[in-house]
Design goal:
Oligomer: single chain
Distance between the termini: 9 Å
Structural class: alpha+beta
Radius of gyration: 13 Å
Number of strands: 4
Order of helices and strands: HEEEEH
Strand order of the largest sheet: 1-4
Length: 84
């Protein structure tokens, strides 16, 4: 699907990098992203940011961050790679 979306490897690489960096920063602040959607991202100065505060939660246990990573990978595969 991504081949038909106008995204190339460079854009996909930066999407992943930008999101993981933001998630790591949020973890240091005691936060995690509960779920992802395409509408939750905005491009600012060639960098993607997750901006949907309704999906940002306080970490109550270490598994919360692991769950966030799993949710991002599932979102990425389903929405970006497969285009569902």
């Amino acid at each position: 699907h991504y081949k038909n979306s106008g995204l190339d490897f460079f854009h996909i690489q930066h999407f992943i990098k930008d999101t993981i960096q933001q998630m790591e920063y949020m973890k240091t602040q005691g936060l995690f992203i509960e779920s992802f959607s395409i509408d939750s991202f905005v491009l600012i100065n060639q960098q993607l940011f997750f901006i949907d505060t309704s999906k940002i939660q306080l970490i109550s246990k270490e598994e919360d961050f692991d769950h966030s990573i799993q949710e991002f990978l599932a979102f990425f595969q389903k929405k970006i790679l497969l285009g569902e």
